[in-house]
Amino acid sequence: MGKPLSYKILETHLVSGEVAPGNEVQIKIDQTLTQDSTGTMVYLQLEAMDIGKVKTELSVAYIDHNMLQTGFENADDHAFIKSVAQRHGVVFSKPGNGICHQLHLENYGIPGKTLLGSDSHTPTGGGLGMIAIGAGGLDVAVAMAKGTYSVTVPQVLNVRLSGELGPWVSAKDVILHVLKRLTVKGGVGKIIEYTGDGVKKLSVTDRATIANMGAELGATTSIFPSDENTLAYLRSQGREQDYSPLCADVGAAYCGVLEVDLSTLAPLAAMPHSPDNVDTVKNIGSIKIDQVAIGSCTNSSYTDLMKVAAILKGKKVHPNVSLVISPGSARTLSKLAENGALADIINSGARIIENACGPCIGMGQSPKSGAVSLRTFNRNFKGRSGTQDAGVYLVSPETAAVSAICGHLADGSDTGVALPEIPSETFAKNDSFIVYPSDADMQSTGVVMGPNIKPFPRNSRLADEVAASVALCLGDNVTTDDIMPSDSRLLPYRSNIPYLSDFCFEKIDSGFAKRCREIDGCAIVGGENYGQGSSREHAALVPLYLKVKFVLAKSFARIHRSNLINSGILPLVFEHPADRSEFQMGHDLVIENAVSQVKNKTVTVKNKTTGKSCTFLTHFSDLEVLMILHGGKINYIKSE
Question: How far is it, in rounded angstroms, from Cα 502 to Cα 473?
């Protein structure tokens, strides 16, 4: 029986273990990427491991999140990251160069390579035929230090594409359709592998959009084959030498198959407040809009913005709409300026902002109170825009642009607006924003650390008795945005865990942090898919600082579960989901004989308030058991 492409790549990178679903394997990591929102913590952890040059073929530190320099904090973080990058042989991408995933696709992604990134949308690289995985910062730091990564082998779900996209239907609509069918939990424990004749009709940037939002499925990663379209893209970027053809074996075995006929799709939108709350634009109707934001790592490529420019050319943005556009890279913006498309965009009444994540992460451009905002981004969680009562809809660049003209949500096929073909382009190398490391830098550069950068919290070895009081009870699909908000107020303090701790869970319960400080050991009770969303390990480090000992939930999102384990916090899964009702705020809980229970991988939690005990599953691998016993990953590494 044949093998999926993802397993073939994993096998070529295998260090230990056997590639089979559920097995823990260690794989060689060829490349890593970080961004500045998570990067400061990554490089603090890298420094704590006291290594020399990184063990990867390529590691890149991108600056793309914390771009507003209203105080010294962001600039200090950037200087710190640059100094550590130079000390350890890491390429540094300066502010203004662009968004990490778009830049990595353009400059460094190579079919068949492995990429680990401290950002949940690292799977964008799957559009080039890479195994590209988002992970917590400590996992990325260890990958740089050791050149390896341990992962439980996911199942592989085949999404088989047929047909061809019709007018006004784009790659964004493909992934929104998949999200509607699979939901935000549908990819948990899986790699999504795209095959079929329909793949040939999608460009690399189309594929990257789809792979990018595979993170919203909860998938470990998504991957496309490397074919003639891949070669054409790499040639356009001046990197033809990086091409190699890759595909799944004939008769490859998958855990399931999802059939998608591209020709049947219509323009779609994800309605507030979840990426899987999807319907057709026509069914949603012509709702009045206040803001349109185009960009993000999902839809800021040259092709995306050229389509936007073509739609806007000779027209004006509706007087009641604010249209803001953030290009994905300096190379893309430069080309738009050269060919006149930038003038078409500006003359329509659009605002151009820096090549950065910007509004996607709540870093500026928050809409007005009660606004409807159309965004080409990947997440529309409540409050993520920076405006708690805004309604954010996720749409394609084409739908966003035509709606900005109309002043309401619009299906472009009903507007009479022409949508021309975008000719291919070639791009000259532009490394004006790149700082390459040198041997001299590695020997002479000292760490530059500003006053806002504080040490990250460290746990202690697991005690034999773990006591905690329930400090918060939650429902399903709690996001990392809920746990540790990320917006223009707090992003400058991502290197200051003590400061951030005051804001933990503030959108849900503003009293959480105070409660935790008043008791010696806290527990959190959640529902399904706890910790979905961003890879930010702050959603584990801040609870660690607040003395959270364990989290009880019906299920966990992959990256957040790993981050909890890396921090020495126990993620425990209800053996019987109905037991969730047995735990309420203020209940005093205890895990007795915790060390032996963790070793046995099944844990009983006694509720001292009610006298009842419930059994929890851990799903720990042998390595995860060791990390928990040592009080987290870095303690375990130091012990080695």
Answer: 18
Tokens of 94: 């300066």
DSSP codes joined into one string, 412-430? GGGTT---PPPPP------
Centre a 10 Å sphere on the Cβ of residue 52 and count the other Cβ atoms it contains: 10
Q: What is the pLDDT of residue 487?
A: 79
| Burial class for 581, CB neighbours closer than 10 Å (0-12, 13-18, 19+) | exposed
Closest C-alpha among 542, 541, 534, 523 to residue 474: 523
Contact criterion met (CB below 8 Å) for 231 and 96: no
Closest CA to 550 of 469, 458, 633: 469
H-helix or E-strand containing 316? Answer: none
CB atoms within 10 A of CB 519: 17
Do 540 and 551 contact (CB within 8 A), yes or no? no
**pLDDT tens per residue, range 519-542:** 999 999 999 999 999 888 999 999
User: Which amino acid appears at position 466 of this protein?
Assistant: V
- Best CA proximity match to 352, nearest among 310, 323, 319: 323
Nearest by Cα to 270 from 175, 206, 186: 175
Q: What pLDDT is stored for residue 124 in this prediction? A: 98
Task: Tell me what pLDDT residue 611 has.
Answer: 96
Distance CA 536, CA 540 (A): 8
Specify the pLDDT at position 147. Answer: 97
SS3 128: helix
Whether pTM > 0.90 for this model: the answer is: yes
Q: Which residues pair with 194 in a beta bridge?
A: 159
Residues 579, 610: contact at Cβ < 8 Å? no
Residue 172 in contact with residue 209, Cβ under 8 Å?
A: yes
Q: How many other C-beta atoms are found inside a 10 Å radius of the C-beta of residue 283?
A: 10
The ranges of the chain with pLDDT < 70 are none
Tell me the Cα Rg of the chain.
24
CA–centroid distance for 457 within its chain: 23
User: Which residue in 463, 471, 466 sits closest to 605, CA to CA?
Assistant: 466
Task: List, in sequence order, every residue forming a beta bridge with 27; answer none if it has no partner.
Answer: 14, 149
Integer Cα distance of 569 and 230 in angstroms: 42
Q: Residue 212's closest CA among 180, 262, 243, 178? A: 178
Strands lying side by side in the sheet with 24-28:
14-16, 24-28, 148-152
Angle between helices 538-545 and 558-566 (to 10 degrees): 40
Structure tokens at 285: 């109707």
**Residue found by looking up tokens 């994993």 in the block:** 10
Query: What is the separation of C-alpha 293 from the centre of its chain, rounded to a whole number of angstroms?
Result: 19
